[in-house]
Amino acid sequence: MTNVTLKNVSKAYGDVLISKNVDLEIQEGEFVVFVGPSGCGKSTLLRCIAGLEDITSGDLYIGNERMNDIEPSKRGVGMVFQSYALYPHLNLFDNMSFGLKLAKADKKEIDQRVEHAADILQLTHLLDRQPKALSGGQRQRVAIGRTLVSQPNVFLLDEPLSNLDAALRVQMRSQITKLQRKLGCTMIYVTHDQVEAMTMADKIVVLDDGYVSQVGKPLELYHYPQNRFVAGFIGSPKMNFMSVFIDEVESHQVKVQLSNGMSFWIPVDGTTVNRGDRMSLGVRPEHLLTACDGDATIEGEVMIVEKLGNETQVYLNLEGADADVNYRQPDTLAVEVGDKLEIGIPAHRCHLFHSNGDACRRLHQEAGVDLPQ
């Protein structure tokens, strides 16, 4: 297995720039997930690594070799696409061995590689079946196995689970993660689903309009987003945002005023904040508290109640919020649409964002996560 390095990589189609000045280092054996909304350039970047798209500018290295002008078959990469693309008239063994047969590999070697891949993916008992006799999850495993038998240095997966139902996605998520750990391979995985990114990745690359918005471990991005885009994209349900007025500023804390006039200090780097500024306060639904436990409180009208059994999600209409504020409480909550509900805001869980979207560095140490420098 090997590392992948992108140096100032851009990709354009005519005058339209898709991937923009991407600098990225993917270490050997790392599971890296590219995540972002549709159209942000994540699949384009993956195809540039695979050699299916030419790089407009910049350099791509796999190992120590520059790959810009190397054809796809010689890059040592294997790609799993969103579509299974299995041959319907061939059984699983023939589907998985098709590429090796085209390369005129020795029959004994073909048998060994297919049997090894089938054993890893728990497909051995299905090798004589045709794709039509398989479930969606089994077909996806065959597509992965077809790539696995080629023994690539780098695995590339482009939204491989998007065609599966919710239960199968959860199952395949864990199977792909186990496979990567077992093989110890370098794997780059593209998805628009941030839950997949959070649960599978060693490192997440968040893309926004072709740019790399932030790179880090899942909990680093969750607790210490560098900008409002990452804060709103990572986490489900998404972070709540509300407009605040800056009352006072110190180097290690900032005093914010809510729309109801209540003020409180939050532990963030105040060196870039000015008194009198209008900024956005961010707080996650699961971090909001009952009114008596918060450092500040705010009241709103209940618009929607989602009773899920293990938790209750309440959407409140609050003055100064960008949208209905989501309050998430474990277990059940006796509240109905039209009620007034007061919630508490914990200062140490708050995020603060400038009007340009940049975050003030949080100074509260979250358990198990290093403070950003």
Automatic annotation (TrEMBL):
Q: Per the database record, which ranges form the ABC transporter domain?
A: 4-234
What InterPro entries does UniProt report for this protein, alphabetically? Answer: AAA+_ATPase, ABC_transporter-like_ATP-bd, ABC_transporter-like_CS, ABC_transpr_MalK-like, ABC_transpr_MalK/UgpC-like, Mo/tungstate-bd_C_term_dom, NA-bd_OB-fold, P-loop_NTPase
For this UniProt record, give its keywords in alphabetical order, as a comma-separated list: ATP-binding, Cell inner membrane, Cell membrane, Membrane, Nucleotide-binding, Sugar transport, Translocase, Transport
Recorded GO molecular functions are: ABC-type maltose transporter activity; ATP binding; ATP hydrolysis activity
GO annotation, cellular component aspect: ATP-binding cassette (ABC) transporter complex, substrate-binding subunit-containing; maltose transport complex
Q: Which PROSITE patterns match?
A: ABC_TRANSPORTER_1 (PS00211), ABC_TRANSPORTER_2 (PS50893)
Q: Which PANTHER family match?
A: MALTODEXTRIN IMPORT ATP-BINDING PROTEIN MSMX, MALTOSE_MALTODEXTRIN IMPORT ATP-BINDING PROTEIN MALK
Its recorded name reads: Maltose/maltodextrin ABC transporter ATP-binding protein MalK
Gene name, per UniProt, is malK
